[in-house]
Amino acid sequence: VTLLRLAPLAVLATLAAAALLVPAADPHAVDLARRFAPPSLDHPLGADHLGRDLFARLAEGGARTLVALAFVQAACVLVGAPAGLVAALTDGTPARALRRLVHLFAAVPRLVVALVVSGLVGFAPLAAALAVAATGWARHALVVEGLAARVVGEEHWRAALALGATRPGAALRHLAPAIARPYGAFVGADAARVVLIFASLAFLGLGADTGRPDWGAMVWEYRLHLFEAPRLVLAPLAAIAATALAFHLALDGPGLRSGAGSRPDPRRGSASGPAARNVR
Amino acid sequence: MRGDLGRSWASDRPILPELAARLPWSLAIGLGGLALGLAAGFALGLAAAGGSRIGAAASRAVATAAQTLPAFGVGLLLVWAFAVELGWLRPFTGGLAEMLCLPVLTVAFFVAGPAARIAAASFEDARAAPWFVAARAKGLSEQAVILRHAAPHAALALLAGASPELAWVVGGAAVTEVVFATPGLGVWVVEAVAARDHAVLQVYLALVLGWMAAAHGLVRLARRRLDPRPAALR
């Protein structure tokens, strides 16, 4: 069953590898004689309004999306997971302040913050990744905190401490293995959201410099040709949706959700089911 | 300090009157989409709970689509379908209702997805609860129990689950406004970011934080009003 769940991701990886290996046309080569050329063998998806190869542009946009995604998730894991552990395992004023900060950052609108931050730090791809991660880490911290809090409530944790294990040592030996799987699933499911936010930033012209074929930027550029050549808009949209769907189906699909309930009922206090559920 | 929010760095126009002109558009799209989306999500969840297979499939499809499609994509597809193929609406040149219809639908679509998921799960919960069985044993029909007793239960869960949507609506409405060229706050802030107009950005951020604080406070107040149980337990 697990293998079947990962099939969409495998398809995505194969497509990405194929796009890299197949010698595609230059995504920036303008050829006005080929304007709006229909799909052919040389140009699998045809050409755009400047005669540029749509498939090559799509492939480069995909590579840029995956690089940004990797940066965002790496930053979120590196900052969010330790923050969540500290919030769950320590007490006192600093920990309480940290919890407040996490809740504040998890509550603010992600896209708006990304917009404003990219306005401050510039529009390069790395800066866009930073802008998305600026709020993303807090959701990771919330999830890790929720998962760790459940382990801390269990007896094997108290037994480990009673046996004389130090807190950091016990966290590494007994806590990390217990939360690695559900947290990994959250990181993957969160990736679908990051893909959408990155595409939205690029659509608004802020994710990267225009002219670069980010999927969102392509939709913005081609939206004027929606009526004469719908495939120009539909192809990048389909690429965005397919990427998000692959992560969603593999790691956040209906099978994982059944039994876990949807969002935990806050009246009951502690989170039931994967803590990932209640964070978007 | 004059309390009038100052002037835009880019256009040198005073900020307050422009804010007042743009705010109603964003409020209409954001709140309209939020209300419509919550209502549609609740109806979908109810249909799924009522045992209708189509309802269950529709609520699952909307929930998945809302998590995997970008807002600007849905907006463009709506324009394509309703304005071009069907020719029913003129979203860019028509009257007020025509201009607002598609943006509100776009925002509502993304709110309805998670809302349907929450409502459906809450109806499932209710079915297993002792009070549900008790009401059935009293002789009420399943439909009656769902409508009389489980619906308020699901509405409460929806209210609690609406908090993340309150945040999403701000960003989602901004992208939607850009797609439909609505003269609202979203377009304004995108222009301000491009021009590095910090005077405008700062006002916008303060506004968003104010909205989040007010909305969360209202949700908490409404839940306490509608559900006295946690207070009684304390």
Short description:
Chain A is mainly alpha-helical and 280 residues long. Chain A is built from eleven helices and no strands. With 234 residues, chain B is mainly alpha-helical.
Topology:
The complex is a heterodimer of chains A (280) and B (234).
Chain A: H1 2-5, H2 7-21, H3 54-89, H4 93-107, H5 110-121, H6 125-152, H7 155-162, H8 167-203, H9 215-222, H10 230-252, H11 254-257
Helix pairs in contact in A: 2-10, 3-4, 3-6, 3-8, 4-6, 5-6, 6-8, 7-8, 8-9, 8-10, 9-10
Chain B: H1 15-49, H2 53-68, H3 71-85, H4 96-128, H5 130-137, H6 142-180, H7 185-194, H8 198-226, H9 229-233
Helix pairs in contact in B: 1-2, 1-4, 1-6, 2-4, 3-4, 3-6, 4-6, 6-7, 6-8, 7-8
Question: What keywords describe this structure?
Answer:
heterodimer; A: 280 residues; mainly alpha; disordered C terminus; B: 234 residues
Walkthrough of the structure:
The complex is a heterodimer of chains A (280) and B (234). Chain A starts with a helix and ends in a 23-residue tail after the last helix. The longest helix of chain A has 37 residues, at 167-203. Residues 254-280 of chain A have low confidence and may be disordered. Chain A contains 11 helices and no strands. Chain A is 68% helix and 0% strand. Chain A has helices spanning 2-5, 7-21, 54-89, 93-107, 110-121, 125-152, 155-162, 167-203, 215-222, 230-252, 254-257. With 280 residues, chain A is mainly alpha-helical. Chain B has helices spanning 15-49, 53-68, 71-85, 96-128, 130-137, 142-180, 185-194, 198-226, 229-233. Chain B has 234 residues and is mainly alpha-helical. In chain B, helix 1 crosses helix 4, helix 2 packs across helix 4 (96-128) and helix 3 crosses helix 6 (142-180). Chain B contains 9 helices and no strands. The N and C termini of chain B lie far apart (46 Å). The model of chain B has no long low-confidence stretch (mean pLDDT 82).
